[in-house]
Amino acid sequence: MARRVRGQTQGQSVNRVLVLIPSFGDWQELPRLVAEIDRLGSEYRSLIIDDGSPRPIPKPDVLGSLLVRLPTNIGLGVSIGIAIAHAAAHGYEVLVRIDADGQHNVADIPLLVAQVRVSQAAVALGVRTNQDFDFARRLVKAYMNFVAMLLTRGAVPRDVNSGFFAINRAGIARLEGSHLERFPEPELYVSAWRVGARLLAVNVQQRPRQHGASSFGWIAAARMLFRFSMFALGQLFQRTRP
Amino acid sequence: MSHHLIVLTLALLLAVLVRARLMQIDLSFPWFVALAVLAFASTNPAFVNWLGGAFGILYPPLAVVFLVFFLLLGIIVSMAIMLSLLRERVLAMVKQDALLALSDQERRLALANTQGRSLADGPY
Known about the structure:
The structure holds two protein chains of two kinds. Chain A has helices at about 30-40, 75-90, 110-120, 135-150, 170-175, 185-195, 220-235, and strands at about 10, 10-15, 15-25, 45-50, 65-70, 95, 125-130, 165-170, 200-205. Chain A is of the alpha/beta class. Chain A has a single domain (about 15-235), classed as Spore Coat Polysaccharide Biosynthesis Protein SpsA, Chain A (Alpha-Beta Complex), CATH 3.90.550. In chain A, helix 4 runs parallel beside helix 7. The longest helix of chain A has 19 residues, at about 220-235. The N and C termini of chain A lie far apart (about 55 Å). Mean pLDDT of chain A is about 85; it is low at about 1-5 and about 5-15. Chain B has helices at about 1-20, 25-40, 45-55, 60-115. In chain B, helix 1 runs antiparallel to helix 2 (about 25-40), helix 2 (about 25-40) packs antiparallel against helix 4 and helix 3 (about 45-55) crosses helix 4. The interface of A and B includes residues 3, 64 and 72 of A.
């Protein structure tokens, strides 16, 4: 018997929430994540962006999920930019981003989605309440949080490195075309505030990494600091927020 | 004599880069011209002495060497700008390509749904 594509009714799309899972080599958790997203309801659709993994990521066996492979490793910011542009072009109501390593709890997604639907906030940010980072990471994150708070006059929640967020349609429209590259989260949140989007914190529990290792070392930390500092410097010369 | 050698080596390096298509001819042209002018001018001791005096350099030929370094820096900066612009274009193309692929998947999903069949039934 013919099976209808998950999340769609005859002739009309009911997919309202696009869940972006950017991945570079993290493929082990993807089938579980996509299946869990599928179980959230018919309005959810997962989008995997394979950011040039050494071995192409196989398409999960879930009808209606999207997968696109970039020809080379370009950076998370470009994947997020693609997802924002796609969500805008196809009229998705909310764009959610989770990690491919299974650290974000899929069950928390509806919490974030509900916040950007019912509140005035355009961006809901999953603030990790159980962070357990080493010294280098704590230092970098503290610096970024401090600078982001200064830049946005305290409007950005205190976890600007969190990669778990939801953006509603208004936020998607405002952020479309934003220039994002590697380590894009702090820049994304500050840019969102800059274009007039309101941000909201939603407390979440981060799960331990299921597979792979963090790419965050001293060199990555230095690059991240440099990039964010340059971004922050640029923000100082921008017109004040309307 | 050493400054002549440096200018000639740099000119040769530029020529090799252009020949090997590692440097775009349009980009290298102003630097070639600058090097040619510098090489020609540095054969004149009056120019070299004037240059040394202008920069307060006690050993005038060093002024030519410093100018060569300056030109080299110019080449590096031009390359960095060019590379950045090129990278922007590549990113835009990759993004466009990905968006087209995703739109195609959306279209196929919508089509499969409209026709009331599973994606597994047809080519996807």
